[in-house]
């Protein structure tokens, strides 16, 4: 057996779950002829058998289920799938989710009145922090804000022709899965719109954050640009990057509000290499 | 339309009931902190509650929830390039597969996991928690299959190396203990009998 073949087989052993290793023809035929890889496979089976139960052995905090049920039941009463409500959702969630460290502190201090008073003050501070901290991109963008951004970017378009566009909005939500380039970008809920009757002008818009960069990402269901990213400037002078998805069926326009557009361009170009 | 979307999940209560423990375990292994795991779990279910209409395949709900935990975790952490570089430089021996019994305690296991950067650790955890292979992990994380294979293989090799090393160290220290204190060995043998 040559080393390269054995390396590939061992990587295959590493990447297949035990039940698939047993039925994989490529593995079986190699392992029959290669005692070293056979030994490796046996070793991995033994390692996995002992590691998995230990990985899953994590004590669950008392009352966790009740806390989750309580917070989710409040959200369940609202229709939260509409992006228009996203700012309101953020407020509801901020009220519902308090860090575990704060909760633990509250549990321990409930016996003494003076501590209760202190906790109340701390809670007020926490709530105020939630309100004053800049909102995460996940919940910020509203339909009107998206419309304004698009107007600034595409001044020749007529805003009267814009409608909400749920289907594309939803498909955009899966972009993190479809487009590996964007899997590490934190994106707000998207607002989908149709710019005119032409289905080639469906647009989804969201805010994003990716490492040190943030701004607005506009996605077209069209192959408007070349595949390779390039930088330009919007009518208002903002740095804009534009490129096409690896599959070629989506076009991206990225307005960089924070961080260097040049550096982000380099980063995206790196993914194309 | 909304009821059609939600039909995959009987109720949010069922979703929580069925998966909260696994989600918490995953969050703990990922973050290495019980307090962070509580927050991540709670936040993940809130997000899941809002986005549950996205679920296409009810059989993959748990994987979907774990992906939400990972995304939520990523929002709170800066990518640590130095940790990634150090991890990628770790040398892994390739020919020592003699041991078939491993003994490592909880602290050792979590310490070893904490030293693995997130984008190696998540495929590793999904592999063990979901018992899925590189193709399914790639689909869940939106990462090319080749990348998943190299990350998963590397993460498993390094984890194995660290835990085996710990195993050997504890065996050596036990042997030294018994040499230094033969009485303890005798009493251990008596206990066995």
UniProtKB/TrEMBL annotation, chain A:
Protein origin, superkingdom: Bacteria
Keywords: Membrane, Transmembrane, Transmembrane helix
Chain ranges passing through the membrane: 111-132
Protein name in the entry: Zinc-finger domain-containing protein
Organism of derivation: Thalassoglobus neptunius
TrEMBL record, chain B:
Keywords on record: DNA-binding, Sigma factor, Transcription, Transcription regulation
Identification of the protein by name: ECF RNA polymerase sigma factor SigE
Protein family according to the UniProt entry: Belongs to the sigma-70 factor family. ECF subfamily.
Gene3D superfamilies: 1.10.1740.10, Winged helix-like DNA-binding domain superfamily/Winged helix DNA-binding domain
Organism: Thalassoglobus neptunius
Pfam family, one: Sigma70_r2
Domain RNA polymerase sigma-70 region: start-end pairs: 15-80
GO biological process: DNA-templated transcription initiation
